[in-house]
């Protein structure tokens, strides 16, 4: 009898429609990068831009065509002006970003780990972070002169605050039971920092690097527009004053490529430092 009942149940299960079966829902979230879609989007935008310029919908004076921009960029490359401006900008960008990042990491770890530094550090950052850093450039020029030190100071000052915030937040989010476990095994403070706190805070710190690098590029261009003979910002300003919109857009394209290169380098740094995850 039991054998007959088992056969009936098996027949019913085999006769059930696929629609009545419950599908697996716990797929999670795992977005994938699609380079083809990314490059396809850029190609589509450039094609529409060129089409608008060719048909006269977009004025050549207000927005030169991609072909005109490419010719202007090639002319800057051939004459060597691009490398002169780009080299000056890279020196300021790298120097200012390193100074602001080192100072921000140091202060961020102090604020995140020690009670005596937390209250004054948070109050200092909260008071000065909302200030537009470019508004302080005239003050930096008074302090350091109109040469390179004022530009380095502007970039470093702008990079410092987001680095402090992300470092402090990363350290603060490290699981306290892991720290207590390391201390219970009598690990010295430096080992706790190196083996527990730093790896736990590193993802947030690296995310802060992306923010601070974007801020550094913005402040770099603003500082070069105010007082610089060479630099991408100076190139864009001079082209705008002479109504050379093709060179102006060429300078903007160089900035966009610079941002892409920085993002790629930070992505490689992420994969290298976070390979343990």
UniProtKB/TrEMBL annotation:
Q: Where is the ABC transmembrane type-1 domain?
A: 86-266
Classify the protein's membrane topology as the record does.
Multi-pass membrane protein
Transmembrane spans: 33-52, 97-117, 123-145, 152-171, 216-242, 248-267
Key word Cell membrane present = yes
**Extent of the signal sequence:** none
Q: What is its main location?
A: membrane
Q: What Gene3D superfamilies has UniProt attached to this entry? A: MetI-like
Extract the PROSITE patterns matched here: ABC_TM1 (PS50928)
Q: Name one GO cellular component term.
A: plasma membrane
The record, for CDD domains, names: TM_PBP2
Compartment annotation: Cell membrane
Q: What InterPro entries does this protein's entry cite? A: MetI-like (IPR000515), MetI-like_sf (IPR035906)
Annotated GO biological processes are: alkanesulfonate transmembrane transport
Keyword terms, alphabetized: Cell membrane, Membrane, Transmembrane, Transmembrane helix, Transport
Q: Which family does it belong to?
A: Belongs to the binding-protein-dependent transport system permease family.
What's this protein's function?
Answer: Probably part of an ABC transporter complex. Probably responsible for the translocation of the substrate across the membrane.
Full protein name:
ABC transporter permease
Q: Which organism is it from?
A: Thalassospira xianhensis MCCC 1A02616
